[in-house]
Amino acid sequence: MSGRLVVVSNRIPTGEQPSGGLVVALHDALSEIGGVWIGAHPDGDAAPDHDGLFEIADDPYTRLAFRLNEDEYDNYYLGFSNSVLWPICHRRVDLVELKREYEEGYHAVNARLAKLIAEVVEPDDLIWIHDYHLFPLAEELRKLGVTARIGFFLHIPFPALGDLGALPAPQDFARWLAAFDLVGLQTRADTARCFEMFRSDPRAEFLPDGRIKLGERRVAVRAFPIGIDVEAFRSAAEQEMTKNPFGPDMQGDVVLGVDRLDYSKGIPTRFHAFGRYLAKRPDKDRRTSLVQIAPPSREEVAAYRQIQLELEEIAGHLNGEYSELDWTPIRYIHRALDRDLLAQLYRRSRACLVTPFADGMNLVAKEYIAAQDPEDPGVLILSRLAGAAEELEEALLVNPYDIEEIAEAIETALDMPLDERKRRQAACYAAVTASDISVWTRDFLRAFESGAPGLKMSDLDSDRPAPAFG
Ligand code: ADQ
């Protein structure tokens, strides 16, 4: 690779041993080929009080952080990123909160960051920008005369055309994307929505090489489904267990849920579906428990506080109705757990409920599959609206809005014969391995390096039709 790889993301890892699949994958790629990672320091108070970049590590690659002040955090991060773009991309336009200062803060941070990046990049560097916090960053860099190749990866769903109308200036969105050379999306359904947006834009022209031309810019759009470090999860799950990770008093089967506490993850509906399962179960002595692990996130945003109260209410109600002296059907843990412990919990659960209403990919679904014992696997119940459903076709796919269907899927999963569990697990495991996080990094960087050829619409049509839902 000529030039350096320059990764830009909203947050930058600060520890010596970064954790989390995506962070580790980017860390590995940068360690191998060298380069720079630029992002906001996670602790504004601990960062130096100036507007420039500051180095927080230089080996095996350089990490440059910048500080977000309180107003920037409120307007750019909590405001425009998480109260406008996040709900728009997750089909919750009803939750969008439009404020002028959010929009101004978002543009100001992207413009400020562009100036900082422009000072450190060289023309033959590859700049790889991540996620919705930084949609306009390439356009800002181009305005400053940066000619280096710039790629983008969107971790969350590409918004539906109609929902883009809720943006303060919807016509800007296509222009922001066209300032990149390569736009990577999670799934074929995302790619189809992105093409639909460009198709409806009179300024856009589809070129014979598959790229899209808008003004003087040409951009390629392709799906790169993200994955996990399969081997790391599998070996963590296989570690010898001396005791039941759920505790000695856990009886019966466990159905597990693991999510950041977010309204897009469909957790209240899942609780209701588990309640429906408890009400209908033919064997009333069967003591199946739902263990939900949901660490808080973005608590400063009202919609996130409400969901916590809602979950406590539903769990309290169902536990009041169905608990026995020695059995609590719903255990709800409101904090993050160590990843090795998580791997063991996945392996010990008879089923995993992943029921988002919208999700770019959903790594929990892949982690659950990676952690199973192939000789006695559990069953993944997966929303067909999660990006992961495009690959994990042999999971028990459900409509995340349909409480009755999820309740039936729980019963089906718990009663599923071993042969069928093994067959579904083998198919899902093959899919999870095929999109291992190292494959994802390699594929994106290769496409990027080789001039970022676009996925032609004819390729998309001839392969397999993009699902109409999603
Ligand atoms: P998220 O919305 O955060 O990611 P997800 O893909 O499921 O969703 O990743 C969550 C990660 O956090 C998983 O690795 C999981 O193990 C971990 N996690 C969740 N709860 C935890 C807990 N209680 N304790 C410890 N770890 C926990 C965004 C997009 C997704 C996309 C990813 C990656 O919303 O759609 O798949 O980025 O691109």
* DSSP summary: helix tally: 16
Between the first and last Cα atoms, what is the distance in angstroms? 35 Å
Secondary structure category: alpha/beta
Count the E strands. 16
Bound molecules: adenosine-5'-diphosphate-glucose
Rg, rounded, reads 23 Å
Describe the biggest sheet?
10 strands, mixed
The oligomerization state is: single chain
Uncertain parts: 452-470
Helix content: 40-55%
Q: How would the global form be characterised? A: globular
- What portion of residues belong to β-strands? 15-25%
- The residue-averaged pLDDT reads 91
Q: If strands are numbered along the chain, what order do they take across the biggest sheet? A: 3-4-2-1-5-6-7-10-9-8
Written description of the protein model:
- The chain has 470 residues and is an alpha/beta fold.
- Helices cover 42% and strands 16% of the residues.
- It has 16 helices and 16 strands.
- It has helices at residues 21-33, 70-89, 100-120, 137-143, 161-164, 171-178, 188-199, 230-238, 267-280, 302-322, 339-348, 363-371, 403-415, 418-434, 437-449, 457-463, and strands at 5-11, 35-40, 54-57, 62-66, 126-130, 149-153, 182-185, 204-206, 212-214, 217-223, 254-258, 289-293, 330-333, 351-354, 379-383, 396-398.
- The protein has a ten-stranded mixed beta sheet with strand order 3-4-2-1-5-6-7-10-9-8, sandwiched between helices.
- A hairpin with a 2-residue loop joins strand 9 and strand 10 (217-223).
- The radius of gyration is 23 Å and the shape is globular.
- The two termini are 35 Å apart.
- Adenosine-5'-diphosphate-glucose binds at residues 21-22, 155-156, 226, 258-260, 293, 295, 336-337, 342, 359-364, 367.
- Adenosine-5'-diphosphate-glucose (ADQ) is lined by residues 21-22, 155-156, 226, 258-260, 293, 295, 336-337, 342, 359-364, 367.
